[in-house]
Design brief:
single chain, 396 residues, 16 helices, 80% helix, Solute_c_fam_35_mem_F3/F4, transmembrane, Solute carrier family 35 member F3, membrane, EamA_dom
Length: 396
């Protein structure tokens, strides 16, 4: 009996040990969760800085390029060709990260299933890839052409309205859930566009520039909604292949347009020696970096943090414009920037934000109700004690 009692612990001790082990597991799980969240937030800050710097840097570099090379469509065509690097870069990441390594051909065939059972056929290329190639070209060309007309601060803040346009199109076409706060955000975006137009006094060059940016934001919203409607959601490899296919479409079918613009002298340069190849390559690299972070950044951080990088590019462009151009930050322009930024932030709220707010308010009400009875109980329990203590003194 003594030996058994030494070898096997008592039931109470066993329960305490089991509780301690379960508590240790819970603590480990909480520690792992907290470490994972800290890593996500850390990578989120890095991605936000990368998105902000690449987007604002490409915008400023495009503005600088047009001083020497006035050819926005040629710049769009040249930068879109760099999308071909998406799938090779993704495959390099797959080789370094994945345990089961596949050959480029095997990975390509697996990603081609995104286009259908038959893969990327000629019919699929013209029906599912070509329309998106046109929308991609129009989005970038209208954005770059607007930079020639107005300052980069107005261009970057007006392009933020594309998120409001995405919500409106998704609500109409995709029958997404109606959210009052997003309707308010869309109203803010429209009001900001009108105020931004009024800030410059409705001059022709500013009205044309604002119309070009709004058109670019509309093309971007149409691209995103049609992608979700026709193709659904894509994995990382499928998205990389799709963007590389857009580059192939650009080389095969869009190359003729810059050539025509060159010979008709719409976008003409005297010799290739005066072309600022450093600015062109720098703009293309920054735009490629922005698209990589925008499409693949959700693998390491939260999507909301990525969207914040686009908003933060507005004050960066405003600071640069303040020192490099003659922009006037009057009260109307500042209010328009604030309204559009506020609308963009409202669109970042999750769909169930109202449920979370209601739950938080109900929890606060329950805690207040629990605190009040406890305080009353202490006061009530103190009264009989005093009466009991006073009775002996009265009898004596």
């Amino acid at each position: 009996g003594d030996e058994r009692s030494r070898e096997s612990p008592a039931p109470a001790e066993a329960q305490m040990q089991a509780g301690a082990e379960s508590g240790g597991r819970v603590n480990r799980c909480c520690w792992k969760c907290s470490v994972t969240q800290v890593k996500k937030i850390f990578w989120g800050v890095a991605v936000v800085l990368g998105v902000c710097s690449s987007w604002s840097g490409s915008t400023q570099l495009a503005k600088l390029t047009f001083k020497k090379f006035d050819a926005p469509f040629t710049l769009t065509w040249f930068a879109t060709n760099w999308n071909f690097l998406f799938f090779p870069l993704y495959y390099l990441g797959h080789v370094f990260k994945s345990a089961e390594k596949q050959s480029p051909k095997q990975r390509y065939r697996e990603c081609c299933r995104f286009f259908g059972d038959n893969g990327l056929t000629l019919k699929v290329f013209f029906t599912k890839a070509a329309p998106f190639g046109v929308l991609w070209t129009l989005t970038n060309y209208l954005y770059l052409h607007a930079i020639k007309k107005i300052n980069t601060t107005d261009v970057s803040v007006l392009f933020c309205c594309n998120k409001a346009f995405v919500f409106l199109l998704s609500w109409i076409v995709l029958r997404d859930r109606f959210m009052g706060v997003r309707i308010v955000a869309a109203i803010f975006a429209i009001a900001g566009i009108v105020m931004m137009t009024y800030a410059d006094g409705f001059h022709s060059h500013s009205v044309i520039g604002i119309a070009l940016v709004v058109g670019s934001a509309s093309m971007s919203a149409l691209y995103k909604v049609l992608f979700k409607l026709l193709l659904g959601s894509a994995k990382f490899g499928e998205a990389a292949l799709f963007l590389s296919v857009l580059a192939v479409f650009n080389v095969l079918f869009v190359t003729c347009i810059p050539v025509i613009l060159y010979f008709t002298k719409v976008e003409y340069w005297s010799s290739f020696d005066i072309v600022p190849w450093g600015n062109l390559c720098g703009f293309s690299i920054l735009l490629l970096t922005f698209n990589i972070l925008l499409n693949f950044g959700i693998a390491i951080t939260y999507p909301t943090l990525i969207s914040l990088g686009i908003v933060l590019s507005v004050p960066v462009n405003a600071v640069v414009d303040h020192y490099t151009s003659e922009i006037v930050f009057n009260s109307v322009r500042v209010i328009a920037i604030i309204i559009i930024g506020l609308g963009f932030l409202l669109l970042l709220l999750p769909e169930e934000w109202d449920v979370w707010v209601i739950k938080l308010l109900t929890r606060l009400k329950v805690r207040k109700k629990e605190e009040i009875p406890e305080g009353n109980g202490d006061i009530a329990s103190g009264l009989p004690n005093k009466s009991r203590r006073t009775r002996p003194s009265m009898s004596s």
